[in-house]
Amino acid sequence: MARIVGGVGTSHVPAIGAAFDQGKTEEPYWKRVFSGYDKSKQWMKDLNPDVAIIVYNDHASAFSVELIPTFALGCAEEYPIADEGWGPRPVPTVPGHSELAAHIAQSVILDEFDLTVVNKMEVDHGMTVPMSLLFGKVDKWPCPVIPLAVNVVMFPPPTGHRCFMLGKAIKKAVESYPEDLRVVIFGTGGLSHQISGPRAGLINSEWDKNFLDKLSVDPVSLTKIRHVDYMREAGAEGIEMVMWLIMRGALGEEVDEKYRFYTVPASNTAVGHIILEPKQSASAAKAA
Amino acid sequence: MARIEQEYDDIPGTFVFDAERSREGFGINMFCMSLMKKENREAFKADEAKYLDKFKLTPEQREAVLNRQWNRMLELGANIYFTAKLGATDGLSFQQIAAIMTGSTQEQYAQMMLDGGRSVKGNRSKSEQKNG
User: Fold this and answer.
1) Which residue range(s) make up the domain with B28?
2) Statement: the pTM of the whole predicted model exceeds 0.90
3) CA–CA gap between residue A267 and residue A259 (Å, rounded)
4) Residue B24 is assigned to a structural domain of this protein
5) ipTM
6) Which of A118, A120, A119, A138 is nearest to A128 (CA)?
7) Which 3 state secondary structure label does DSSP give B36?
8) Which of A40, A95, B11, B93 has the maximal Cβ count within 10 Å?
9) What is the domain count for chain B?
10) Whether residues B84 and B108 fall in one domain
């Protein structure tokens, strides 16, 4: 049986990708950001997952305004890197896990989550920046990836509650897959930021800290946050945080917080990062 | 029909890209999207007005694009991830566009971010700002 063995929450700021690609990781401004991921890279290396499910949002790369799917699950064998206007990021093409992805699609749709299946898609910084942060500079990605693109660009995105419930359905889907696969799930985006309009530059560290605190111990309270409050308190683009709730929902009720990192700013954004592991139930621990 | 008032319209300095703006801004966003291609960027730069004729923009949207009124574009239905492509065509980064939208120089804006960003205090709602 496949199972989810870890959860990663992280921002996906495009400027982090640019700094990474241009070798600026040792410059003081960027070192402050990248050094926050040193332990995480080691954690990921030790975890050595078989598959990663990455919840992210596309930024007018694969999806324009012609088609705006609320949840789009990648079932392709691979995902080329999108050219976001400055040439594609110099990172390897992302291998998919189409078998597990197809299984998840079938399972969650029957669980009443009407998601869109995508068999051909390019992926942008929303997905590749978290991968660079956790997997480092690589010639080949260490595991296949299942992208789950969530619309957070056009209002309204799915509610936090809906995201959390989808996470639970994904957990159920993974656990009904017969092969013994160890799966890590990423929730990306946020934390507080606004990049549009005269209020651009908004940061709310108090809000962010509360979000990170509640994520492990009381995620249900986070599922009740209304969209208008995300936008008001955490910036118009801070609403991306709903994607973290998919990751959290997929980890089960109790988790251990393994690591946390927070810094302001990376470009326009508060960078937040957390690593969670599902708490082993007493019986599972005994069996192990 | 006039825009139906939404609860989030009370957030100051913010144009939420909702389904209504998405409808209204389809042409302007498709124009921005076209700038992903190098040959289109070149055609646009060679004759901006002529290039815009290829897209269905209202006169107000056209004016906002030609005059690079970044906030006005958002108000008229453009989305920031799309206008950023116009910014990139002009050689502007996200942070540079943000600085322009907030009416500050890039240095001031970058410093504000280094100092922890714009505080939410006094910026939650238009009424809070008025009474601020």
Assistant:
1) 13-92
2) yes
3) 23
4) yes
5) 0.95
6) A138
7) coil
8) B11
9) 2
10) no
